[in-house]
Amino acid sequence: MAAKKNNPSNKTKDINYYKKKFWRVFAYSLLGVLAFFLFASWGLFGSMPSFEDLENPDSNLATEIISSDGVVLGKYFKTNRSQLKYSDLPKNLVEALVATEDARFYEHSGIDGRGTLRAVFSLGTNGGASTLTQQLAKQLFHGEGSKFLPFRIVQKIKEWIIAIRLERQYTKNEILAMYCNVYDFGNYSVGVSSAAQTYFSKDPKDLTVDESAILVGMFKNSGLYNPVRNPEGVKNRRNVVLSQMAKAKMISEAEKERLQALPITLKFKLESHREGIATYFREYLRDYMKKWVAENKKPDGSDYDIYKDGLKIYTTIDSRMQTYAEEAVAAHMQNLQQQFYIDQKNNKNAPFVNITQAETDRIMMQAMKNSVRWAQMKEMDKSEDDIIASFKVKTKMRVFTWKGERDTVMTPLDSIRYYKHFLQSGLMSMEPQTGAIKAWVGGINYKYFQYDHVGQGARQVGSTFKPFVYATAIEELNMSPCDSILDGPFMIHKGRHHVTEDWEPRNSNHTYRGMVTLKQALAGSINTVSAKLIDRTSPEAVVELTKKLGVKTEIPVQPSIALGAVDITVEDMVAAYSTFANQGVYVKPQFLSRIENKSGEVIYEPIPESHDVLNKDIAFAVIKLLEGVTESGSGVRLRTQGGGSGDNRWTGYPYMFTNPIAGKTGTTQNQSDGWFMGMVPNLVTGVWVGCEDRSARFKSLTYGQGATAALPVWGYYMKKCYADKDLQISKSEFERPANLSIKVDCYQRPAVVKDTTQTEQNTDEFEL
C-alpha cells in the first residue's frame, strides 16, 4: 500500500487549530483567574475587609496610663498591645526589619512579582514571597488560615488583594508601624512597644542594634525564637538578621562581627496589673473608668472598652514622686515591721492585743469568709464545715516577706494570722493649688494586699482632726493662735451637746500645763483645750466646717470628735489640709489630666472643682498653728539630729529640715492608727500606718505613736523629693496675706534645751 503523503495544507490546518486552542485555553484561564480575583474581592470565598475596616483596623490596643512626666505607669489590656507611630520606631529596627523580611519593600506595591515568580519556580524552596504588607494583611484580617492547599491558595489571593488595598490606603511608613504594632512576640506582649518593655525593660526608641535584631528575628517565629526559652536559637537568628543588615550596607562588616559576638542580654519582666509602680492607684483608676465608660459614649453611641480601644489616660501622678513615695513606705514599713515582731514576741495571741478568744475567732472567721479559697470552695458546693476543715490542712504556698517571696508549708488558717501581723500604710501627696495628686501609695504590696488605704480605707484620725476644731474656733470665736486658754480639768455634763453621760477628757500624760496659747496647745496636742474649744463652738459647727473641707465620712455630732474619734480616708484628709495651704480654698483632688482615643483626639478633660471655705487670714492662722507642731511639738524631730526613744525606727533620720513645715501627728486609742499630715507651700502629704485589724497594734506609745509610725515616711519621702531639684518642691515661707487681721506672731520665751531622750507623751487618749 502506498504511503500517505504529507499535505502542506493539512499541516497549516493543524498549527492553526492548536493556536486557536491555546489562545482559547489562555483566554478562559485568564478570565478564570480574573473572575477568581473578582469573586475573592467580593467576599464570595470568605469575608473581606471593607473600606472602613481598612481605615480603622481592629488592632485590639491596650489602654495606657501615663504620668504627668510622660512615663507609662501601666496598662489595661486583654492583649498587651500598644500603638506606636513610625516616628517612635528606632531606625535600626526599621532597617533590620526591611533587610530581613522584605528587601524590596519600598519598590513594590504590596506584591513582590520577582519574589513570587522565584517562589513559584522553586516550589518555595528558595524562600517565600510574602511582603511585609501581605504579612500585615494576614495579621490584621485572617491570621494563619488553613493548611489545606486549595484553601491556602484562596487565602494567598485574599492576602494579595488586601495588601494592594493597604498600599493604596496607607504610606509605606504607616504600614511598617502597623506591622510593628500587631505582631505577637509572646509572653503577653503584642507589638514592638510591649516587647521592648517585656524583654528589655526599655522604650522602643532606646533599643540597641543587637536588641532590635533580636526582636526582628522573632518576627519569623516568636514561639521558636523566644529569648527566654531558646537563647541559643535566638542568638543564631539574631546573627542572621545582622548579616542581612550588613548585606544591605546598613551596618559595616566590622560592626556586624562585633554585634554577633555579643551575648543575649535580657532584662525580662512580664507586664502585669499587679506589678510596677502605682499599682493601688491604677486599680482605683480602673474602678473610676468603669463608671466613666458608662457615662461617656463613643460618637456612634457604643461603649468604650478600656481593654482594647487603645485609650491614653493622662494622669496627674508624677512617676518620680510616686517612686520616692513607694520607696519611703517600703523602707520604713520594713524597718518598723521588725519592731512589731519584737513587740509581739511573747504575745500568745499575736498580733492581737487585749481581746478575748471569741473576738479573735470572729476576726479569723471573717477573714476566712473573705478569702479566695472560701469563694472557690463555695462555688464547688462544699459545706461550711468542709471549707473550715480545709483551712486547717497544711499546704504548699508562697508568702510575702520583706526579704522577697518565700515558699513554705503552712495551713491556710496560719497564713491568715501570718498576714494579720503586717503593718500597712497609706500615703497621698497633692498640690494644694491645683488638686493634682502626685503620689498614691495604697499599701505595702498590691499582689498580696489589695485593700487600698488611701481611697478605700477610712481609719480613725486622732489628733490630726484637731486643726478642724481650732479653725472653727478662730472663725466662730474670733480667736488667734496667740490667745491663751487654761489647760485644766474639764467636763461636759450629760445632756449638753448630745452627750449621754458626763464626759471628762484627760491629757495623755495625765498632767495639766495651766495657761497656754492655742499654738502651744496644738503643738502639745492638749486634749482638754480641744474639748473646751468644741464646747464653745458646738460640735455642729465643727462638723459643718469639716464637710466643707471635703470630708465625705459621716461624722457623729459629739464633742468626742475633738480628739479624733472620726474615721476619714487619707485622700479626704489630704484634701482638707490642702485647703489651709491654698489660702482657704478647697480644691477637689484630681488624678486625671485628659483622656485621648487611639487617634490622639481628646475625648475627656475634667473640670476642676473648688469652693471657698475660709478666708485667707483664718487659713494662714491655722498654718501658723501647724508650724508650731514642727517647731516645738511632736513633729520637732523633723528638725533635730539628737537621739531619742525609738530612734532606730525613725527611717531616714536625721532629716534636718530647716524650711517652714506645717504638720500634725495623730495617734488613736491603743496605738491602732498612726498619722502624720505634712505641708509645704506647694505640696501636702498625708501618711497613715496601722494593721489591717485595729486590735493588732503596738503595745506602747514609743513605736505606736504617729511621730514614730508615720512621720518617718513623710520625712524620708520629702528628703528624696528635695534631692530631686527638677521637682521644684518649695522650701519657701507660706504666703502671708496682705493686711493680716489675725495675730499669728506670738511672744516666745527664750528656747530651753530639750531632753530628747524621753519618750514623747503627747499622744491622744480617748474617753469615748
Based on the model shown, name its key terms.
768 residues; 26 helices; 5-stranded antiparallel sheet; alpha+beta; disordered C terminus; 5-stranded mixed sheet; elongated; Penicillin binding protein transpeptidase fold
Blueprint (SSEs and pairs):
Blueprint: H1 8-42, H2 51-55, E1 63-66, E2 72-76, H3 91-101, H4 113-121, H5 132-141, H6 149-169, H7 172-182, H8 192-200, H9 209-218, H10 231-247, H11 253-260, H12 279-295, E3 312-315, H13 319-343, H14 357-369, H15 372-379, H16 384-390, E4 395-399, E5 406-410, H17 412-420, E6 423-430, E7 437-441, E8 459-460, H18 466-477, E9 484-487, E10 514-517, H19 518-523, H20 527-537, H21 539-548, E11 567-568, H22 570-581, E12 585-587, E13 592-596, E14 602-604, E15 610-612, H23 616-632, E16 662-667, E17 674-680, E18 683-691, H24 701-704, H25 706-709, H26 711-723
Parallel strand pairs: 1-3
Antiparallel strand pairs: 1-2, 3-13, 4-5, 6-7, 6-18, 8-11, 9-10, 12-15, 13-14, 16-17, 17-18
Helix pairs in contact: 3-9, 3-10, 5-6, 5-7, 9-10, 10-11, 13-26, 18-20, 18-21, 18-23
Protein name: Penicillin-binding protein 1A
Subcellular location: Cell membrane
Organism: Flavobacterium nitrogenifigens
